[in-house]
Task: inverse folding
């Protein structure tokens, strides 16, 4: 459905309203990659493992749909399309509010933290409707929280690089704390996985420790890798501006 709407927007709608002469191929590739990764994460072997057998597989699934898919998805949206959406009478004001850095940061981290409370996490396991709600909230709020970093819009642009680095550093704290808590827990936090068949040959505690490390090390690595890239982008542009000023 999303893919159909995307190609309709960048094809017939773009030509009808003369929004742009062409669409960047790189953006189309990133959008399709985001859709493919989301589909592979929520369907197939990883989905089966995460839903019925393995906490670490579930954590890998969550990392993909919250830290990898959203940046690709947002980067794949042409600026003229996003600007049009953000100026629609009903959608625009709501989206401009939700993509404000403080709002987006708070929403994602509250949702992400609460769903890892054992009572809530356990409630989602084995209950497709609640589990689907969990994934919708994860993906939706992750899209919002990555907006200040990867936005292509001029109506709600990304933050400047120094603010992006501060934002990303703050964003790395939650997976660090939660991941460490899960890694060092000496008992099974989620009875569902403790009772699941051990098809991967891992004990419940070993599986839980791998899940914690994936959130702690994997999640933090992804966020800090983006922070590092933004730092070098900032330094390179600052150097270019200084060189241009010295030649003027």
Result:
């Amino acid at each position: 459905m999303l893919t159909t709407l995307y190609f309709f927007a960048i094809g017939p709608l773009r030509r009808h309203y003369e929004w742009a002469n062409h669409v960047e191929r790189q953006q189309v590739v990133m959008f399709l990659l985001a859709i493919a990764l989301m589909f592979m994460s929520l369907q197939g072997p990883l989905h089966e493992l995460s839903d019925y057998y393995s906490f670490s597989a579930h954590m890998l699934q969550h990392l993909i749909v919250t830290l990898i898919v959203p940046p690709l998805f947002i980067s794949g949206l042409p600026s003229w399309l996003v600007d049009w959406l953000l100026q629609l009478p009903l959608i625009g004001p709501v989206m401009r509010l939700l993509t404000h850095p403080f709002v987006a940061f708070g929403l994602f981290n509250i949702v992400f933290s609460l769903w890892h409370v054992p009572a809530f996490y356990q409630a989602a396991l084995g209950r497709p409707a609640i589990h689907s709600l969990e994934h919708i909230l994860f993906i939706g709020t992750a899209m919002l929280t990555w907006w200040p970093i990867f936005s292509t819009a001029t109506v709600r642009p990304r933050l400047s690089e120094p603010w992006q680095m501060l934002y990303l550093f703050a964003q790395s704290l939650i997976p660090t704390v939660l991941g460490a808590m899960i890694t060092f827990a000496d008992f099974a936090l989620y009875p569902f996985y403790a009772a699941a068949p051990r098809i991967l040959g891992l004990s419940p505690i070993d599986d839980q420790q791998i899940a914690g490390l994936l959130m702690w090390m994997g999640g933090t690595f992804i966020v800090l890798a983006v922070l590092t890239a933004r730092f070098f982008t900032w330094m390179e542009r600052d150097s270019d501006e200084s060189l241009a000023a010295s030649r003027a």
The CA atoms of residues 104 and 150 lie 13 Å apart. Residues 2-247 form one domain. The mean pLDDT is 90.
